[in-house]
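Quick review question:
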């Protein structure tokens, strides 16, 4: 038998581990069966910055433009400050209409500094085909009402590590709201970059926030506004569309980022202009949430599916639903129309919050809003907020978180 020599240190180690087991058993034996209270300051801070819900009282309503745009000033009902946000982000409004919970993103149109006064502002354009929410808000929301929103969401904001120091913002119509929020943040000192806003409107009468922009440009020389009118010629304004030539004229020399916020049609035109400018992909950013209402305008759409209504089978844990799903609306909207609240956040295919498994059938996903991971594509996962039925479907979806 081999003669094993053990140093005093080795012996102490052995005793340490031998006693450790006994000590652990004693601690387990003496620990009460009640759950540990886990109240960490970092968790509390995270919850305050990323709340699932915020409740507000409507304090003021301002009518803008031709009367089809309204800015709502909302004050946190519990007296706390609303969650701080990055200018350009949105909140999801949750509204029960006819017994169904409808959720829609609306951009925060104020600068984040307003949260320090306990308030936020949302600007809502009434869109007739959006039968769910914008018309409801315009007709029903009044001063003193309580409304519920999510915490701030979205990735359309300035990021110094990625974006150029000079930004050309291109906005069409009510798409100006996130850009307006960013210019407020620059004037307040919450963001530090130069922004030239090329703002496309049909006529002078359609321009939103005209007085506010004038006030911002008095406070900072980092913001410049150029109004571009497509249906009218007016002194001090450009006329026509926002072309590569116009962008070049105002961007000048050096690197710049383009931030675009507007309609699907505007993006399709701008994509061509951005190509002419040879702008790198990372310097061309678009606000995309909830934007795609005409999927057949995207390359690769199977035209035979357009205007059809398919059957959508949904499995959510042990619950099963069967609902109609129009080819012209994304799957998340079809669910909400049927009164089924699916998980959602960005509503633009990017965050993955609504990630679901496609069990049967085919969907169309426009490339612009396909934010799935490569492995998810292989494994048959989809993001219903950015997916359109092109056949009958069967989907497994997580419960609303
Ligand atoms: S809600 Fe973000 S990907 Fe669908």
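Suggested answer, residue by residue:
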């Amino acid at each position: 038998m081999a003669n094993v020599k053990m140093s005093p240190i080795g012996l102490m180690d052995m005793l340490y581990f031998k006693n450790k087991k006994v000590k652990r058993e004693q601690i387990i034996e003496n620990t009460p069966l009640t759950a540990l209270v886990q109240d960490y300051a970092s968790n509390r801070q995270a919850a305050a910055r990323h709340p699932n819900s915020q409740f507000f009282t409507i304090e003021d309503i301002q009518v803008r433009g031709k009367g089809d745009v309204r800015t709502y000033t909302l004050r946190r009902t519990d007296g706390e400050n609303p969650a701080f946000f990055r200018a350009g982000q949105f909140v999801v409004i949750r509204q029960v209409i006819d017994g169904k919970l409808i959720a829609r993103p609306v951009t925060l149109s104020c600068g984040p500094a307003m949260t320090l006064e306990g308030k936020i502002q949302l600007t809502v354009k009434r869109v007739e085909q959006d039968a769910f929410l914008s018309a409801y808000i315009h007709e029903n929301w009044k001063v003193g009402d309580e409304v519920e929103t999510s915490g701030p969401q979205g990735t359309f904001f300035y990021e110094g590590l990625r974006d150029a120091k000079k930004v050309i913002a291109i906005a069409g119509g009510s798409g100006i709201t996130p850009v307006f929020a960013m210019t407020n943040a620059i004037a307040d000192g919450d963001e530090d970059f130069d922004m030239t806003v090329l703002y496309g409107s049909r006529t002078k009468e359609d321009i939103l926030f005209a007085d506010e922009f004038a006030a911002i440009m008095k406070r900072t020389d980092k913001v410049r506004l150029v109004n571009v009118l497509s249906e009218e010629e007016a002194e001090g304004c450009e006329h026509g569309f926002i072309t590569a030539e116009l962008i070049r004229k105002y961007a000048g020399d050096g690197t710049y980022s383009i931030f675009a916020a507007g309609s699907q049609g505007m993006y399709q035109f701008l994509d061509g202009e951005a190509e002419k400018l040879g702008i790198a992909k990372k310097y061309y950013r678009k606000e995309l949430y909830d934007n795609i209402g005409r999927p057949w305008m995207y390359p690769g759409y199977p035209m035979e599916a357009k205007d059809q209504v398919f059957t959508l089978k949904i499995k959510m844990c042990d619950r099963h639903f069967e609902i109609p799903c129009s080819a012209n609306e994304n799957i998340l909207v079809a669910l909400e129309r049927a009164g089924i609240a699916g998980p959602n956040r960005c509503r633009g295919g990017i965050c993955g919050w609504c990630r679901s498994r496609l069990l049967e059938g085919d969907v169309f996903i426009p490339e612009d809003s396909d934010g799935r991971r490569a492995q998810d594509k292989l494994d048959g996962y989809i993001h219903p907020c950015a997916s359109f039925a092109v056949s009958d479907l069967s989907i497994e979806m997580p419960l609303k978180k």
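Why it works: The first strand starts at residue 54 and ends at 64. The first helix runs from residue 8 to 30.
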